[in-house]
């Protein structure tokens, strides 16, 4: 931000909002995805939860213009692990997915069966 604004508003720091912080989790994933097209998306969160659905929309925004479909049935699948108790191996096995890269903080690039 401009020094003028800092000086006359008294703002000393810009604190990112929750959406920006959540979005930043996926910045390392974006270059690994195709420039356009559709990828799958899976999460261990409750699909009926409003909070989980809000997070899904934030991920869609962060990865645009790539489209996401809530399905493991794509060659590439974005994994968003939110629960610390999730058994990752079982989660992947149940969805017939293979880990391509663990980007940390619950963000995964997965390989699925493009069906």
Give a verbal description of the structure.
A five-stranded mixed beta sheet has the order 2-1-3-5-4, with no helix packed on it. A hairpin with a 2-residue loop joins strand 4 and strand 5. With 115 residues, the chain is α/β, with parallel strands linked by helices. Helix content is 31%, strand content 23%. The model has no long low-confidence stretch (mean pLDDT 89). It is built from four helices and five strands; from the N terminus they run ααβαββαββ.
- Main beta sheet strand tally, sense and closure: 5 strands, mixed
Widest sheet, order of strands: 2-1-3-5-4
Number of helices: 4
Distance between the termini: 48 Å
Q: Taking all residues together, what is the mean pLDDT?
A: 89
The helix/strand order is: HHEHEEHEE
> Percent of residues in helical segments?
25-40%
Principal-axes geometry comes out as: elongated
Question: What is the beta-strand fraction?
Answer: 15-25%
Computed Rg: 17 Å
Number of strands: 5
Q: Which class do the helix and strand fractions yield?
A: alpha/beta
Uncertain parts = none
